[in-house]
Design a protein that fits this description.
The protein is an alpha/beta fold. It is built from 6 helices and 7 strands. Strand 4 and strand 5 form a beta hairpin. The protein is globular, with a radius of gyration of 18 Å.
Length: 208
Amino acid sequence: MTRLLHISASPRGEASESLGLAAAFLDVYRETNPGADVEHFDLWDGTLPEFGPAAAKAKMDVFAGAEPSGEGVAAWAAAKATFARFDAADRYLFSVPMWNAGVPYILKQFIDVVSQPGMVFGFDPVTGYEGLLTGKKAAVIYTGAVWGEDRGPEFGSDFQKPYFEDWLRWAGISDITSIRFQPNLAAADVDTAREKARSVVFEAAASF
């Protein structure tokens, strides 16, 4: 059975453009994949562990070939459990609003929690990093209200998509479908742009 994990980074509920488009994606995906197992991981639901001093020390212990100790034991177990939930999926849907030219801090927290040696990546001192999440695929819905590909630098910069997809590829996920809905909200055609984005979502979900 194919398992899809929707990881959402917006705290805005029904007001969220990224969550609205993700819901449309999942409706079509379920229709075309009736036997698929679909799970939602809301990064704001309080289950995402922190990655503080104890976890950082545990990570470096593992890097050095040692076992985590002290408070690091529980911190490392929490990171491993989060990664296991992530790794159990074959396909991913990420809904990612733009915050201050980048991704929401909760998504960066998720990345820092799961990006561990022997889980997301391997490392060789001669050949460097090796992404371990091969054979999986991801669809990413990017939303934003100011920056846009057709706007000048006075509307900001895009560190959202380049950063996130660099992480996906570094982790070994190279099959990536990108969907953008980033209209200028001062324009009169926001509804038209939204419907265009929904059409792209429907097409992407039907073939995902």
